[in-house]
């Protein structure tokens, strides 16, 4: 009887008639809870139905009966991977590799699991092995590119994306991530070309619209960026990332009230969305609503207490409120988290000099800020001013010439009042 029911289920299952196959598997398991074949195949069916937790439970039960069954172990690993149980999936793929070292699908999925676990170097080796076994694997070339991008090897990532696109010119993911890699290299126009190709194939792809908007923002083309964000938001109105980026574009277009409304929409969706808390805090800071700015930064720190940027912003607000000692503690925290944080070093230098009279320490901070970011706004002018105040005339003419040249070139090398004083 069970054999007949199983065969009927298999026949329907192979035809894709999942709802009709399901009752047969269930009837077998009602009669025999330890029926290996029914547990295994119903587990596969549940995975196809998107019922991952049930799929995992059924396949795990089947493996207890036959722990070394290759097909069931493969199905179980796939179910774990699909349900984001990456560590457990990896353990299964390690077992599969011992059983069948050149099984390409398992090697590929092992790479996917490793990538999700941020073990990109190991993932890269898996994708390389898959490509050796099957040079025409679009997915392996694509995921190789993603792993390389995550390892900050953008040039190599672009080559992998190009290899994927040579095999499948219509791969939206490859075009999108190729654009992202080009963006990371500041090749913004090339990135736009990649995004435009993707949008010609999928005009309503939200991820590509967002990334195109971000690249346009990097080119200071904020009106065009805003158009991309608005198109994406028409498709997904509650996307915090889009609402936040829309707010930034509006701020840069000198439309502050609309920017604030966009930030508030994002926080209405997710009150703990960190980028928007920071941007809203910065907005409040720039519009001199310092108590509200402090409240936003405090909320951000409650989410991520190790964010150097937040500590720096908070220190700036505290300084503006006349709380210089508290401000210094915040800048100290930011620098402890990121010793090369030029903004925090510059801010601490300013407070040490103007409020504490610690000009030696202030000069040291400003030198560190310049070492971290040589074109940090006004840093050379501030450092020059400090050195004059403590009668340090070493390299005076050389530094004066540098600042004069910077002013003539239109660089933000010295503040106007300081420059006039110096002159």
Helix-strand layout with pairing:
Blueprint: H1 2-14, H2 18-31, H3 36-48, H4 52-65, H5 70-82, H6 86-99, H7 104-116, H8 120-133, H9 138-150, H10 154-167, H11 172-184, H12 188-201, H13 206-218, H14 222-235, H15 240-252, H16 256-269, H17 274-286, H18 290-303, H19 308-320, H20 324-337, H21 342-354, H22 359-372, H23 379-389, H24 396-408, H25 416-422
Helix pairs in contact: 1-2, 2-3, 3-4, 3-5, 4-5, 5-6, 6-7, 7-8, 8-9, 9-10, 9-11, 10-11, 11-12, 11-13, 12-13, 13-14, 14-15, 15-16, 15-17, 16-17, 17-18, 18-19, 19-20, 19-21, 20-21, 21-22, 22-23
Please provide a written account of the structure.
Helices cover 78% and strands 0% of the residues. It contains 25 helices and no strands. The mean pLDDT is 90. With 423 residues, it is mostly helical.
């Amino acid at each position: 009887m069970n054999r007949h029911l199983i065969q009927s289920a298999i026949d329907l299952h192979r035809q894709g008639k999942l709802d009709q196959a399901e009752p047969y598997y269930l009837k077998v398991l009602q009669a025999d809870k330890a029926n290996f074949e029914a547990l295994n195949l119903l587990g596969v069916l549940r995975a196809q139905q998107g019922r991952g937790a049930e799929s995992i439970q059924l396949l795990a039960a089947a493996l207890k009966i036959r722990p070394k069954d290759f097909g069931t172990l493969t199905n179980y690993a796939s179910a774990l991977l699909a349900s984001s149980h990456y560590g457990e999936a990896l353990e299964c793929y390690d077992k599969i590799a011992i059983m069948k070292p050149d099984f390409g699908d398992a090697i590929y999925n092992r790479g996917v699991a490793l990538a999700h676990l941020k073990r990109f170097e190991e993932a890269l080796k898996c994708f390389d092995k898959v490509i050796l076994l099957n040079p025409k694997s679009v997915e392996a070339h694509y995921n190789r590119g993603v792993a390389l991008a995550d390892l900050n090897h953008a040039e190599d990532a672009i080559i992998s994306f190009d290899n994927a696109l040579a095999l499948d010119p219509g791969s939206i993911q490859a075009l999108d991530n190729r654009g992202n890699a080009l963006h990371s290299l500041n090749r913004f126009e090339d990135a736009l070309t990649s995004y435009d190709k993707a949008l010609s194939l999928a005009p309503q792809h939200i991820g590509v619209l967002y990334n195109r908007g971000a690249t346009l923002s990097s080119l200071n083309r904020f009106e065009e960026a805003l158009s991309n964000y608005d198109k994406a938001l028409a498709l997904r109105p509650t996307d915090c990332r889009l609402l936040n980026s829309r707010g930034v574009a509006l701020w840069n277009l000198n439309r502050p009230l609309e920017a604030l409304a966009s930030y508030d929409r994002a926080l209405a969706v997710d009150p703990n969305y960190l980028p928007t808390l920071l941007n809203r805090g910065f907005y409040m800071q720039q519009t001199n609503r310092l108590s509200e700015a402090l409240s936003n930064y405090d909320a951000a720190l409650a989410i991520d207490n190790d964010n150097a940027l937040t500590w720096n912003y908070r220190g700036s607000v505290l300084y503006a409120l006349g709380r210089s000692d508290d401000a210094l503690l915040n800048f100290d925290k930011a620098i402890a988290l990121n010793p090369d944080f030029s903004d925090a070093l510059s801010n601490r230098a300013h407070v040490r000099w103007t409020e504490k009279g610690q000009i030696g320490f202030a000069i040291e901070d400003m030198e560190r800020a310049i070492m971290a970011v040589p074109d940090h706004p006004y840093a050379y002018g501030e450092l020059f001013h400090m050195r004059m105040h403590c009668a340090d005339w070493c390299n005076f003419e050389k530094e004066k010439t540098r600042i004069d040249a910077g002013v003539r070139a239109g660089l933000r090398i010295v503040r106007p009042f300081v420059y006039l004083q110096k002159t």
